[in-house]
Amino acid sequence: MRAGGLTLVRSEGLDVCRGCPSPAVTTTRHAWRIPSAGSLERLARVTEDLAPPGVGEARVRVEAIGLNFADVFACLGLYSATPPGAFVPGLECAGVVEALGPPRASGESTVAPGDHVMVLTRFGGYATALNADTRYLVPLPETWTMAQGAAYLVQALTAWHGLVHLGALAPGQVALVHSAAGGVGLHALAMARAIGATVIGTVGHGDKIPLLEARGLVRSQVVVRDAARFGAQLDAALAAMDASHFDVIFDAIAGSFFRPALERLAPEGRHVLYGAADFMPSGARPNWRRLAWQFLRRPQLDPMTLIDKNRSVMGFNLIWLFERADRLPAAASAALALSAAPPHIGARFRFDELPRALRTLQGGRTTGKVIVEV
Ligand SMILES: NC(=O)c1ccc[n+]([C@@H]2O[C@H](COP(=O)([O-])OP(=O)(O)OC[C@H]3O[C@@H](n4cnc5c(N)ncnc54)[C@H](OP(=O)(O)O)[C@@H]3O)[C@@H](O)[C@H]2O)c1
Predict the structure, then answer these.
(1) Residue-by-residue DSSP string for 199-242
(2) C-beta atoms surrounding 373 within 10 Å
(3) pLDDT for residue 163 is more than 80
(4) Please, which residues have CB within 8 angstroms of residue 138's CB and are 6 or more apart in sequence?
(5) For the segment 211-257, what is each residue's pLDDT rounded down to a tens digit?
(6) 183-217 pLDDT tens trace
(7) N or C: the chain end with fewer CB closer than 10 Å?
(8) How far is the CA of 117 from the centre of ligand 1 (A)?
């Protein structure tokens, strides 16, 4: 078949281009699409045409997809940024640039066909190929695998934005990092170490302790969270560090763990909230009655108390920064400067196993990043 002067041949169910100036150009793709948010069971694998890359876009053949907690929330309909109607979830992947659309402005694009890139995308990542805005492509570090590239951007940028940009963690300070063995958490540990700060990390299960010990924490720096005695657990961990308070709290759990941590925040301390994992439903669909109960019991705060105590509580959601593409290059290089080692991949799945990969992430027992390889 000929298209636009190029020769397309069938290869493993996909049309690829032979005789193109550089690598083959995919024209159809496989994707995991959900007709509407509400249940993980609605995710369905589809084969669909992919339009040529538009203005300012690059066609990327995807080799690895990084899963994020936000993907689960989006599929369940619990994420405010979720698109209405049918959508392809997925916020990041890594792959090879196959072709470029017309540039937005002359000389704008810094990528070329054949380049290996990490990709940030506001949904649409669960696919074997996609057209991505070139402003959200970051060169894959030379020694990294595609899986490592797909594991990096969202979580490293989250750790950098929360702990460094907002949290202003400084040398000699003490940080509490929740879910320290998770994807964001491991980057937060690496960044805190590079800064010269001390971390007390929390995990949900003791089987994550060895990973954190391998990352340089001693046993007394790891708290296996117990809601019934969390305050006492924090006091013991602080005492073992010869410290009395946290300077920064990096918190994506909230729920019943919010208040005991906040009570141990130092004057001038920053409590940075960036998630509410406590709200994560355990099933394929949200249990609305349980969510309503959790919502009623969510942490509440009188802002006037922050003045007396000299404390700050702040929050962020990186997806709202997506429109600020101009900030990405500086943020990505700042994150890479502080967390330069390839990210830890805790679990790998095949593309056809993607729903199982999501359920595994949802289960809360994974470490580092969950990756789907294409
Ligand atoms: N605001 C933002 O821009 C932004 C961006 C990226 C991620 N996030 C948030 O950051 C958090 C981490 O995200 P991630 O993608 O890197 O995942 P992750 O940390 O690799 O994994 C999620 C971890 O959350 C913990 N968790 C706590 N309560 C849970 C529950 N009820 N059910 C399941 N897991 C629970 C589990 O670790 P432990 O039990 O060991 O704690 C689990 O391994 C998520 O809450 C996510 O929403 C926010």
Answers:
(1) EEEEESSGGGHHHHHHTT--GGGEEE--GGGHHHHHHHHHHHTT
(2) 17
(3) yes
(4) 117, 118, 119, 120, 153, 328, 329, 332
(5) 999 999 999 999 999 999 999 999 999 999 999 999 999 999 999 99
(6) 999 999 999 999 999 999 999 999 999 999 999 99
(7) N
(8) 25
The first and second tokens of residue 217, run together, are 């924490």
Strands 129-133 and 57-66 turn out to be antiparallel
User: Measured in whole angstroms, how far is the alpha carbon of residue 181 from the centre of its chain?
Assistant: 13
Atom 29 of ligand 1, residue of closest alpha carbon: 277
In contact, 97 and 113? CB cutoff 8 Å: yes
289-347: per-residue pLDDT in tens? 999 998 998 999 999 999 999 999 999 999 888 888 899 999 999 999 999 999 999 99
Ranges in the chain annotated CATH 3.90.180.10 = 2-152+343-373
Residue limits of CATH 3.40.50.720 in the chain: 155-321
Distance CA 94, CA 116 (A): 7
Q: Which fold is adopted by the domain 2-152+343-373? A: Quinone Oxidoreductase; Chain A, domain 1 (3.90.180)
For residue 6, is pLDDT > 60? no
Question: Does residue 70 have its Cβ closer than 6 Å to ligand 1?
Answer: yes
Q: Would you state the pLDDT for residue 12?
A: 37
- How close is the Cα of 278 to the center of ligand 1, in Å? 9
Measured CA to CA, the distance from residue 200 to residue 249 in angstroms comes to: 10
The CA 369 to ligand 1 mean position distance, Å, reads 11
